[in-house]
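Service request form, structural biology core

Requester: graduate student, group of Dr. S.
Request type: structure prediction, single chain
Budget code: on file
Notes: please return the result as structure tokens.

Sequence provided:
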Amino acid sequence: MKTEKIIIDVNAHITNIACTVGADGDASKALISFDNLGYGVITAVKFNARGFNSFGDVVQIGGKDKFFLIIQDISIEKNSTAKDLKAKLPNGDIRRLELEECQICYADGSVTGYAGKDNREFDVDVFEEYGADKESVDAIRDVVSTDAKYKPQDFENGWLCSCGRWNAAEHSDCSKCGVKKQTIFQITDADFITDLIAKHRKNEEDRQEKARQEAKEKEKATRSRNIKIGIGVVIGIVLAIFIGRAAVLSGRTTYSSEAEMKSALQGTYTYYNASGKASRQIVIDGDTAIYKWSYSGSTDMDSSITWDYKNGKIHTFEDLIVTNQGYLKEGSDIYEKGGYMSTSDSSYSSSYSYESGYSVLKITVDSVTNNSGYTICTGSVKNNGTKTYKFIEVKGSFKDSSGNVVDTDWTYAAGSEGLAPGESTTFRLSVTKNSKITSCSVSLLDYD
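Core staff response, request fulfilled:
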């Protein structure tokens, strides 16, 4: 473990008090923000306030340098942030405020006074998230507390939780993470950690099995839906044959005879992949279509051609449509007329032969947002490879502004249905809401 220093005001009930002051007609108003340290739902706050004008001079209220500033009729949940609470100021000359906690009202009717600032400096042992202690830390966060960061410490007048929250001695549960003091201090025991690791491993197995079952159920539901869709599609196709034939043929080149079609289509047609590289060709020579591939070791394949000149199609071992531009089209793949393709590209052959999901599955993070209870990372995975990958697992490391990992989550971006070449899929990762999180780094964990 490494050691770091943290400073905590052990008397505070709220922290990170911030305030901006602006003119509101002839008066001044303040917008106040703070973090609720979790002793209850806050319904009112009384501050000791001192105001200053634009020159930095103290603005006296009733002949005194300090005055009470009260915000009422609010509801600030435990461990949440109050933002931009409005307060009217007693003097229009005030342009800056210094605020200090005075009293707090809670939803249960209790009122707590502030005993004054008492900053304590603690030397805390920080859990190493990598290396030999990684599995122990993962087990603690999985089974005991997702917020665990430090080795807990006990003092005569209070205790410091693993999440970094100071708790008064009379509190048996942490006001931030909710873990009992008796439980959190067990993480310093080696035997307890051994049991935690066993539970963590079982939880991981259960989560993976659950994910696989969910993937199978999703595949089953998709299959059932596709059958229903297929029935509808068949009916639609029957109708479309009669209604849409003219529209279909409008996107193709048709011919008056087989000879005309055969003469027009002689030559080379090239398919370019997503990166713009020529990867395969069809060479039409007489009544034969010769298929060629760019990677080393490939063998040309010949297929005889049947000419469907009335419908603008040719049949080899597959159906190829002749587009209005005179190109050949199979499914969504377009073979353009002409073009050059190298068949001795060793780098292409190497990547084709030793392709790895870690090199071809591209992960993109789209957004990191918050709702009432969670911090959420959304993104996508695209398969830039040449084969289908299944059970794609991704892990998100949610970080603060300094790049420290605050929390983690993992999920399946794709299940047994797989992610085919060129396809993309989205993922969603979420952890308990934490205002410290500013970014999320997503990496590939595993795949089949």
